[in-house]
Amino acid sequence: MNSIHETAIIGAGTRLGEFAVIAENARIGQDCVIGHHVVIHAGVQLGDRVRVDDHAVIGKLPMKALHSALTHDAVFPPASIGDDCLIGTAVVIYTGCTLARHVFVADFASLREQVTVGEATIIGRGVTVELKVTIGKRCKIETEAYITALSEIGDFCFIAPEVTMTNDNFMGRSAERFEHFKGATLARGARVGANATLLPGVTIGADAQVAAGAVVTKDVPARKIVVGVPAKVLRDVPTAQLLDQQGWE
Amino acid sequence: MNSIHETAIIGAGTRLGEFAVIAENARIGQDCVIGHHVVIHAGVQLGDRVRVDDHAVIGKLPMKALHSALTHDAVFPPASIGDDCLIGTAVVIYTGCTLARHVFVADFASLREQVTVGEATIIGRGVTVELKVTIGKRCKIETEAYITALSEIGDFCFIAPEVTMTNDNFMGRSAERFEHFKGATLARGARVGANATLLPGVTIGADAQVAAGAVVTKDVPARKIVVGVPAKVLRDVPTAQLLDQQGWE
Amino acid sequence: MNSIHETAIIGAGTRLGEFAVIAENARIGQDCVIGHHVVIHAGVQLGDRVRVDDHAVIGKLPMKALHSALTHDAVFPPASIGDDCLIGTAVVIYTGCTLARHVFVADFASLREQVTVGEATIIGRGVTVELKVTIGKRCKIETEAYITALSEIGDFCFIAPEVTMTNDNFMGRSAERFEHFKGATLARGARVGANATLLPGVTIGADAQVAAGAVVTKDVPARKIVVGVPAKVLRDVPTAQLLDQQGWE
């Protein structure tokens, strides 16, 4: 049994689980597999061969806290999910998100409004991507990593489990802070190790590497490894690990 | 289609999503918006103009593990959610919780039994608040922070993403530990930076600040900034960031 | 109202919530309590007196990302949940998992395929256990800890909140990495403190202890405490905290 709005369009060969909700003007492509208790909100566009697992919610409308610093009441275009994407159990994708083809979003991940994700990128289990974040193609963002608002993640980046990013050096105080909110910038091929912390506005250079547990307080040069609290340059990234040695393009 | 118990009371102007479950003696105020697949357990009290998003569960009964140290079989008063609260997708609020007005609970957050939350406080995405925690008004507790049992968080506190608090110096060993369980105490206006760790029983003084990535092993004096592993006093909090400079009251 | 496949078997005294889905050939024991919107996938075996809370999903089939390193298309035996287990709200347990009796899985925890869990172990709120992990009996794995793939956790281990484990020293680069994936090994009674980070392949010795916030880069000897970034031996674990002093066996 389902609740499908009369204006929703569901492509040929698509299967729906039980108790799914498909709202007005949603459009689901062909040969999709939609799990049980899935909610597809109004206007969402799903490509072909998309798998959406049980309890996922796509197209959520933002909520605005009484004293929120960044969420606005703007109207966003509907969420758009490319062909061959995999959307895990209990994933929450907000309105205004755009996922390219072959994106993998693991269970419990959240993508806030105005997030774009490039082709074949993996968003790990429980990852939070806050609003206004751009993520390139073929990245791996691993379990429970936290991508703060206003971040830019280039192509081929690797973000290990439990990484934390920040965007407010003023920790919620002083009017001055509103001029300085800035997330992390990861250049093409940058890699950040497990449980590392990035302070507001830092840039991790192309193919650079942040060691596990490091606390990064300033920019990291391209192709360098940084370690420690606070993080300091240790040495060059080994040649065998450089992006242009992987044969990926 | 919904499952609404015949004893439940639903106020005028309140809208329900599909496949919601409203149990016996639940009382929902006026002009609320209840999402799809929401579960409101027995006896829960919701104020007026509350928004509850898809898959949220309010009024969950505790589960007791075979060797749990802190969970008891007590009976608690029903969960009570104040007027104008926003309850996100898949949030889980246990029985015995009390939320004041205008509280914002983001997606996937958990509030265990006997938690109280003050007016206009923001509980971030995926935050865990364990049992017997008191949180003041107008706090911000950010994404994936972990508030251990038996903690006290004052008014106007700021807790950054992925902060970890602890309450057991004995790490689960020795009978002696049962006399020493103690969570964190954050005095009014205290702030804790991203991915910081607080050892059991520490107090963060009024308007004090813990830097990102710090490991706090002892009490932090009021209006001081501490940094490092283990955390040491660096300098005073800048005047422009002090609570009494914000014009909030 | 429920969706129960005609081939599913449900034991005497078992109660089902609303909008639950029980798929083909699932077998649920006697006197179980199954919450609202629960999904029990095909073939899952539940013992007697199991409690499964709202929105839990048991028996999920893996999803394979386009460039996944470890997930294969193998067929696994159905998930098996022992007698007297407690399965929390929105828990996700994959196919091929085996839980012994009296296991407690708190809200939002995930157990991937080929995970085995010993008797009376507690898996905390939001914990991720990746694929091919073995966990012993009577362990406590606390809130939001991350257990990487290919890890081995002995009996009586304690893993504090927000601990991060890793298994890839090459951070996703070089073909060489496929020969070196190795998770953490925790010997019997090992304990890891809050927000600590374990580098790939480290062994924590029997009854050893890792301090909160430590970054462990090499093996830890039995019965020693290590602290810091990188972690170094500080002293012996106090006798009163040793496993053989607890009277647990």
Note the main attributes of this structure.
homotrimer; 249 residues; mainly beta; 12-stranded mixed beta sheet; 10-stranded parallel beta sheet; 33 strands; 0% helix; globular
Strand content of chain A: 25-35%
Give the overall silhouette of chain A.
Answer: globular
* Structural class by helix and strand composition of chain A: mainly beta
Largest interface, counted by CB within 8 Å of the partner chain's CB: A-B, 40 and 47 residues
Main β-sheet of chain A, in a few words? 12 strands, mixed
Number of strands of chain A: 33
Spatially, the strands of the biggest sheet of chain A line up as 3-6-9-12-15-18-21-24-27-30-32-33
- Please state the CA-atom Rg of chain A, rounded to the nearest Å: 19 Å
Assembly form of the protein: homotrimer
Continuous helix count of chain A: 0
**Average pLDDT figure of chain A:** 95
Low-confidence stretches of chain A: none
Residues in helix, % of chain A: under 10%
State the separation between the terminal residues of chain A, measured CA to CA. 45 Å
Quick description:
Helices cover 0% and strands 30% of the residues of chain A. The first copy, chain A, is an all-beta fold and 249 residues long.
Topology at a glance:
3 copies of one chain form a homotrimer.
Chain A lengths: L2 E2 L4 E2 L4 E2 L4 E2 L4 E2 L4 E2 L4 E2 L4 E2 L4 E2 L4 E4 L19 E2 L4 E2 L4 E3 L3 E2 L4 E2 L4 E2 L4 E2 L4 E2 L4 E2 L4 E2 L4 E2 L4 E2 L4 E2 L4 E2 L4 E2 L19 E2 L4 E2 L4 E2 L4 E2 L4 E2 L4 E2 L7 E4 L4 E5 L13
Parallel strand pairs in A: 1-4, 2-5, 3-6, 4-7, 5-8, 6-9, 7-10, 8-11, 9-12, 10-13, 11-14, 12-15, 13-16, 14-17, 15-18, 16-19, 17-20, 18-21, 19-22, 20-23, 21-24, 23-26, 24-27, 25-28, 26-29, 27-30, 28-31, 30-32
Antiparallel strand pairs in A: 32-33
